[in-house]
Amino acid sequence: MTYRLTLEGDVTRHLIYDPTTSTLIDEGDGNRMVHPAFVTEGPVSWTVPHRVSPTAPGYKKDVRVLKIQMGFRCNYACAYCNQASWNSFLGGAVEDAKLFLRNLDGWFHPTSTDDIRIEFWGGEPFVYWAKLKILGEELRRRFPRARFNVITNGSLLDDEKVDWLIAHRFGVQISHDGPAQTYRNPEDILDDPEKCRLIRRMMAAAGQIEDEEAPPCPNEPDFGLGFGTVLTRWNFSLAAVRRHIEDKLGVPPGSISSNTEEILLPYDDDAMACVPRDEAEHRKALHTLFSEAANGETVPGCNSVRNKIEDFLDSLGKSRPIAALGQKCGMDREDTIAVNLMGEVTTCHNVSAEDAHHNLGNVAGLDAVRLTSARHHQTRDECRACPVVQLCKGSCMFLEGDHWQAACDVSFTYNTAMLAAALYYMTGLTLTRIDALDDGHIRRPGVAAAEVIRLASPHSSKAMETAAHA
Ligand code: SF4
Ligand code: SF4
C-alpha cells in the first residue's frame, strides 16, 4: 500500500510514501527524496529474515546474541513491568549457573572475530549477585571482546558491585522514568545521595563527566552507563526525564546517555492502565515526542530516538525492502537467544519457561528448538497496511488480542511522531496528515486517513513551537 503524506508550514507539500520499499516521492515533481547524509550509491544486498509465525516457526543457530535469564525476582514491585506476569520463576541455584557454564561450549561457539553480545537479565539482576558474579567472571574470561550488558533498577548498587562492573567492562543501563518514576515505584534512587555518588562514579569511569574522586578507566574503554526510560501516560517527555535525572545527580546538562523503550507496551491488564487511554492522551504523546525530536531536545541526546530516525533515513537512501525488515527487538533472529540457567529457551528474556507457550525447547537439543510463540509483522494484517512499519518493525512479536491492539496503538503513535520528525529534518515542514491511496487503509479496514500534527494555523512557519504547546 502507498500513502500520501501532507506536510505543512510556509508551504504545503505532498509526498508519496511506499513502506514496502521505503520509497519517498515528491508528488509535485515526481523526484525520489533522500536525505543528503544518507545517499547510497550502487546496489545494496539484503539478508531476508524468516517470517516467523506459529505455523512457520523460527529456529536458533549460530548464536551470537546471548540473553541469560537468571530469574524474575525483584526487590521492587513496580506498577508496570514487562516481566510482572512471571515473577514466580526464581531462576535456579548457584549450582545451575555453574552447570550452565559447563554446558555452554556444547551449543555456543562463536568465532574469535564474531561480534558477540551477552546480556544478564533478572528480574533485578543484582538480586542474583552470587550467580551474576560467577557468570560474568567466567564469560569475560572466555569472551574478552564480547559486549556485556545489564539492566538494573540501581537500588542494590554499592562500591563492590560498581568496581566489578567497571573491571568486567559492562554496559550498565539504569531503568528510570524521570518525573514519572514515582508512578512506577515510590522509591527514587536519585533521592539517595549514596546512590547518586555511585552513579557519578560510573559516569566518570565511562568518561561522561569529570570526577576527581573517580577518574575514567583508560584501560577499560568498553565500560558504559546509560539510563533507560519507559514512557507512560504520566509522562511523554524524554527531555523532562533527562532534566530530572541530571538535576538530581548534579551533573551538567547533556552528560547522561539515555535510551527509551518507547511507550509502554501493555503486556498485561495492569499495564493497560498505564498507557495512553484516549485520543487526547495519544495526541499529547504524539506532539510531545515530535516537537522534542524536531527541536533537537532528544536528538542526538536520546540514542533510541536518534537511531530510529537515522535508520529510517537510511531506509529511504537504500530503498529498504520490507522483506529485509526483522522484528523491532530482534528476538526473531536465529542468532539471538534467550535462555535460563537450566538451558530452557524462551521467546525472549521477558517471559518464563514455566509458561509452556513460551518454552521453546532446551539448548541441549538446539536443533529442535522452535520459535512457535511469535508473529513477524508481515504476518499481521495491521502491519501489512501500516505507513510506519519501517520505523516500528511490528511492536511486540508475541502479544495477541486486546493487548496486541493496544500495543499497536501506542507503537503507531510513537512511530508516527518519529516519522514526522524525520520528515521535518528533510523538508522543514510538519507532517499533518496521512491518506491511504488506491482504496487502501491505515492498519484497520475503514481507516483511510490519519491526522498527525495539528498546527494552530494551517500555514504557520513555527511548526515546532505550535506542536510543543498543542
Ligand atoms: S504501528 Fe502497529 S501496525 Fe504499524 S508496524 Fe507497528 S505494530 Fe504493526
Ligand atoms: S518479544 Fe520482543 S518486544 Fe516482546 S517482550 Fe520480548 S523483547 Fe520485548
Question: How would you describe the overall organization of this protein?
Answer:
This protein is an alpha/beta fold. The chain has two domains: 1-33 and 281-328 and 376-470, no CATH class; 65-280 and 329-368, TIM Barrel, CATH 3.20.20. 30% of the residues lie in helices and 16% in strands. The chain is built from 13 helices and 14 strands. It has helices spanning 94-104, 129-142, 159-167, 181-184, 193-205, 238-249, 269-272, 279-294, 303-318, 381-384, 389-392, 401-427, 463-469, and strands at residues 3-8, 12-18, 23-26, 65-69, 117-121, 147-152, 170-175, 224-231, 258-263, 336-340, 344-346, 359-362, 430-436, 449-451. Strands 9-8-7-6-5-4-10-11-12 form a nine-stranded mixed sheet. α8 packs parallel to α12, α8 packs antiparallel against α13 and α9 packs across α12 (401-427). The protein is globular and about 65 Å long. Mean pLDDT is 93; it is low at 459-470. Residues 82, 329, 331, 347-348, 350, 396-398 line the site of one iron/sulfur cluster.
